[in-house]
Amino acid sequence: MLAPGAEPDVALARRLFDELKRRTGDSKGVTRASYGQGEQIAHGIVRREAEALGLDIATDAACNLYMTYAGTTPGRATFIGSHLDSVPLGGNFDGAAGVLMGLSVIAGYRRAGMRAPRDVTLMAIRAEESTWFGASYIGSRAAFGRLTGRELDDVRRSDDRTGLGAAIDAAGGDTGRLRRNESYLDPSHIGVFIEPHIEQGPALVAQGKPVGIVTGIRGSFRFRDACCHGAYAHSGATPRAARKDAVRAVAALITALDSLWSDWEANGHDLTVTFGKISTDPAEHAFSKVAGRVDFSLDLRSQSPETLRRLQVQLMQTVADIETAHGVGFDLGAMTGSDPAEMHPAVIAGLETASVATESPAIRMPGGAGHDAAVFAQMGVPTGMLFVRNANGSHNPEEEMDIGDFAAAARVLSRFCLSPPDCGE
Ligand SMILES: [Zn+2]
Fold first, then answer.
1. pLDDT at 209
2. 160: left (phi over 0), alpha (psi -120 to 50) or beta
3. Structure pTM?
4. Residues 6 or more apart in contact with residue 341 via CB below 8 angstroms
5. Which end of the chain is more exposed for a tag (fewer CB within 10 A), N or C?
6. Which tens digit of pLDDT belongs to each residue from 274-318?
7. Residue 399, Cβ neighbours under 10 Å: how many?
């Protein structure tokens, strides 16, 4: 028979979700800017509760917050972590659910007078959302000393245009240590890292399951500020062959990549292709003009590094072909991205065992979006993720996570931390 787990303190999480919504609410949804006011408020709330629970509190040079509940035996700690920032006008659960789940689990142990075999460290991670400073996983990479000076000099995409370094220092951090690439975390001291998170796609809702266990996180490459240059011309007077139509050229690119996506997916490749922004120039466009310029963004993701590499080669070839065929020029701008990350098989198996012991057995699924867990996996930490069913996607005010589903995932996490897998010293 499996050892009983402690019931997580879900009422605590419910109270804190309400407080977060109230204090970081915006015209709609919530806004918790990375190293901005909303994120500071969220960190203050979580820190206050961790102090009330008597946890050991620490922060690093990037103001990530570590809250530790001591285990019964020395050894590598079990980390639970997620972020507390949000996109502008985002939802209340993306990120915060993971941190509050960790608090619920620890509060449950404490209430039951139990301790896990290893230290359980809850990490509230800074600046995961790349919308603010244009870089992915700022807080978790900083914890491992992997932020670059160039990234620290970048400015926030908001009216204040605050530099990342200045924002970190203003929040109480120490950018001197970050610029020297000092690492606060030693991967060899972390037994496992688990990130609980709401699901951002529709799979759990479609399958009627409250909890998912993630097998891997997609990597990406993206062009946030791409442009196609053609030539403005009269719509009636310019024959087809003489046009340099930026709209048709970008449409050709969209069509080509969409059919590539369909073909590759049919052949078993994992990928996504998204043109999230596309616009002609309002200062120059008109209904009776051939468009001379189109700005767009392009985001390509896959769980496979090989697929990403092949996709890049194929993209460049397609762009060159369209330039020739349409007489236009593409300037894709700076490329950013992240590497795919696999979740650790022993962690996946451990989460599965923990979930079987609860009322709601979890299903395995890929993780489409980027998460701090990818950084821990890439640093060699045995890593896993739990997804909680959530309707209406994320990064919007309509995120809809049922607190009962949150409780189901918290029970899995609670049991998992009581017998974390030994992934080898
Ligand atoms: Zn998130």
1. 96
2. alpha
3. 0.83
4. 216, 217, 219, 373, 374, 375, 377, 378, 383
5. N
6. 999 999 999 999 999 999 999 999 999 998 999 999 999 999 999
7. 22
Ligand 1 centroid from CA 282, angstroms: 33
Query: Ligand 1 centre and the CA of 95: distance in Å?
Result: 4
* Other beta carbons within 10 Å of 57: 12
> 222-265 pLDDT, tens per residue?
999 999 999 999 999 999 999 999 999 999 999 999 999 999 99
The span from the first CA to the last CA of the chain, in angstroms, equals 28
DSSP 8-state secondary structure symbol assigned to residue 8: P
Residues 31, 25: Cα–Cα separation, whole Å: 6
What is the rounded CA–CA span in Å between residue 188 and residue 425? 8
- The residue with tokens 């050892």 is 3
What is the Å distance from ligand 1's center to 189 Cα? Answer: 25
- 372 CA from centroid of ligand 1 (Å): 8
Residue 297 CB-density burial (10 A; 0-12 exposed, 13-18 middle, 19+ buried): middle
Between CA 233 and CA 240 the distance in angstroms is 11
Classify strands 190-198 and 77-83 as parallel, antiparallel or unpaired: parallel
| Ligand 1 centroid to residue 233 C-alpha, Å | 45
Q: Residue 3's pLDDT is what?
A: 45
Distance 19 CA to ligand 1 centre (A): 19
- Record the tokens describing residue 256, joined without a space: 């080509």
Q: Which domains does the chain have, with CATH numbers?
A: 10-217+340-418 (3.40.630.10), 220-338 (3.30.70.360)
| Helix runs in 112-245, H state only | 130-133, 138-143, 149-153, 164-170, 175-179, 203-207
Burial of 5 (C-beta count, 10 Å sphere; 0-12/13-18/19+): buried
pLDDT of 1 > 50? The answer is no
Using the mean position of ligand 1's atoms as its centre, give its distance from the Cα of residue 388 in Å: 12
Give the Å distance between the CA of 222 and the centre of ligand 1: 18
Amino acid at 425: E
Where are the extended beta strands (E) located within 358-415?
363-367, 383-388
Kindly give the distance from the C-alpha atom of residue 25 to the centroid of ligand 1, in angstroms, as a whole number: 17
Tokens in use for 104? 């619920």
- Taking the alpha carbons of 46, 51, 56, 57 in that order, is the dihedral positive or negative? positive
| Tokens at 111, concatenated | 């209430």
Alpha-carbon distance 263 to 422, whole Å? 41
Report the separation in Å between the CA atom of 357 and the middle of ligand 1, taken as the mean of its atom positions. Answer: 27
CA of 2 to the centre of ligand 1 (A): 32
